[in-house]
Each structure stands twice: as structure tokens, then as C-alpha cells.
Amino acid sequence: MEVTMLSDAEVLKNSQTSPWMFGILVDRYEEAFIRKGEYVLRSREDAEDAVQDTFLKIYKYASKFSERKNASFQSWAYKILTNTCYTHLSKKMKEIARTQMLDFAELDVVNGLDNSEEGNRSSVAQSILLRLPERLSRLLSLYFFEDKSYAEIADVEHISISAVRSGLHRAKKQFKELGVEIS
């Protein structure tokens, strides 16, 4: 039988003993994975990194895959891709939170600090962001650093717009409380 006629699950299984066969799956899915990754990460370079990590995970965990009635190789692989993209996005947001200053005029938090102390304001903001729960820090980063609308954040985070609104409210409230604690 010609290898290109094999199902994805069969190719994955055979790649355990013939690693060259894994290249067939890469050929079949790489471009589609990159498009999905670009949609989530908004960067082709980041998407390519996430796709490479995804293929490594698929190969590493190939022995754990078992095709079920409602779960195909494709759905399993896309789940790994999605999780990998969100892990990359989370790391990217944490890096942004560490390197950029939050828009204090919008949050109205560090008004007690002298305006000439910009460096101090930045340090305080970064310190506060790192103390917030990851989800709340990510919401603030998307809203303030990337200027995302509530609808865009809802799409990226796979939550409703009202959940974005309440999450941002909670995040701002905790940010303010932590800001008062620090100053």
C-alpha cells in the first residue's frame, strides 16, 4: 500500500518504528497549523515556533494517541496546537508585562507617585502585574498593551464579552488594591 494512502492515525502509528513517516503528517498539516497559529498569535514567526513545538509534542506523545469514535487524529493534533499556541501567548503576555509600563492614566492607580518618577511608576506596575493571577494579568495586557477591544479579547480568550468586562473590572480592582499596598 502506498504510504500517502494511509490515514493520519496509521501514519502516526507507523512513525514510531519508521520516524521518516512523521514527515508525511508534517506535510499534511504544517500550512493549516501555521494559519491557525497566526490567527491565535497574530504573528507568523510566533506561529511557526508554536507549530514546531506542536509537531514535537505530537511525535513525543504519539504512543498515547488512540483513535476513538468521536476523536480523530486531526482533532487531537489541533487540540495540542491550540494549547501550545495559548502557552506561547501566555509567555508573550508575561514578557510584555515585564518590559512595558501599564497605562496608568487609564487605570488611575499610581496617582500618589510624583510624575517625575516614571521609572518608579514602571517598576511598581510591573511588580503589581506579576502579583496578579495569570488570567487577570493576561486580560490587562491584552486590553492595555495590545489595545484589544472587549470583543477581540473574548475571541482570543474564548470567553464571553461579559466575562471580559467582569474580568477586567476584577483585574483593575485587584491592581488598585495591590497598588495601595505597595505605596
From TrEMBL:
KW Transcription regulation (keyword) present: yes
Segments forming domain RNA polymerase sigma factor 70 region 4 type: 126-174
Keywords: Sigma factor, Transcription, Transcription regulation
SUPFAM superfamilies to which the protein is assigned, alphabetical: Sigma2 domain of RNA polymerase sigma factors (SSF88946), Sigma3 and sigma4 domains of RNA polymerase sigma factors (SSF88659)
CDD domains xrefs: Sigma70_r4
Alphabetical list of Pfam families matching this protein: Sigma70_r2, Sigma70_r4_2
Single GO MF annotation: sigma factor activity
Keyword Transcription regulation: yes
Residues annotated as domain RNA polymerase sigma-70 region: 25-93
Annotated GO biological process: DNA-templated transcription initiation
Database matches in PANTHER family: RNA POLYMERASE ECF-TYPE SIGMA FACTO, RNA POLYMERASE SIGMA FACTOR
NCBIfam families reported for this sequence: sigma70-ECF
Protein family (similarity comment): Belongs to the sigma-70 factor family. ECF subfamily.
Protein name listed in UniProt: RNA polymerase sigma-70 region 2 domain-containing protein
